[in-house]
Amino acid sequence: MTGQAPGAARSLLFVPAGDERLLAKAHLRGAHELVLDLEDAVPESGKEAARRALPGHIDRLAAEGQYLVVRTGSVREEWEKDLRAALRPGLRAVMLPKAEHPEQLAGMAAFLDAAERERGLPEGAVGLIALIESPAALFALPALAKAPRVRALAFGSEDFSLALGVAPTPSVLTEPCRWIALAASAAGIGSFALPLSLAVLDRPDALAEAARRARGLGVTGALCVHPKQVAAVNAAWAPDDTEIGWARRVTAAWDTAGRGGPAPGVIRVDGQMVDAPVLRRARGLLAAIPAGEHPENTDPGGGR
């Protein structure tokens, strides 16, 4: 089983919805969620065939334990056709490209409301991911993040840079990543963004560094357009040995301080103050350890 609970997703890998060869192995790539792409990755001449095949791909990949997203076309005439093909058990979310106005998302949410009832699916089973691809969208982020069914904001760095009329460099992309992280956090939803062109495939160090910087901005994960990118993204958002060691020391010291008496208000660990928010961060880091790894098997000293 390769999928991961939607709330814990860190890597979303795009797979062309019309490419049978890539779809056959997509669940083996290690991505937390797959984005079956009906937009840019499928030529207009191939869209109808891709839609006809989509239900079978969703059923098979869901049976493999993979969490699935479908990226639709951006205009209503396109996404209605895409949703009629995609909406079935196993679909977890729909990604709407070129999201700029909350009304776009509200229209898609209302369509999903009716379609779920018609098909006997659980109400609200399918979430929405708003793909931010223009400077105009940045100024609507709070409203987009709070639109019905929205579970995450994502960043399309190539289209954003094209709209801005510049190359997709880290200096251009860092501030939009920050805005997306802030808006998503304020709304209590996820964010997927990198301050790096998604077209970078053969510079793993640059990708890893960009992913670490995105995590430092408060972004919760990243989009991947090639399987080569998945491992670096997953690693960037997984707690490292240093973080796990610190979190273990903090939680152990807190438990010791409260043993046999009232819970402490503040303690000191590694020369730093630890209060309730710091404790919550430590516990959150331990909870984020990937399946199969356990903090009790990690060096408490935290050294690499």
Keywords for this structure?
single chain; 304 residues; alpha/beta; TIM Barrel; 2 domains; 8-stranded parallel sheet; two-stranded antiparallel ribbon; 12 helices; globular; disordered N terminus; disordered C terminus
Can you walk through the features of this model?
- The protein is of the alpha/beta class and 304 residues long.
- It has two domains: 232 residues, TIM Barrel; 57 residues.
- Helix content is 46%, strand content 15%.
- It is built from twelve helices and ten strands.
- The strands form two sheets. The chain has an eight-stranded parallel β-sheet. Strands 9-10 form a two-stranded antiparallel ribbon.
- Helix 4 links the parallel strand 4 and strand 5.
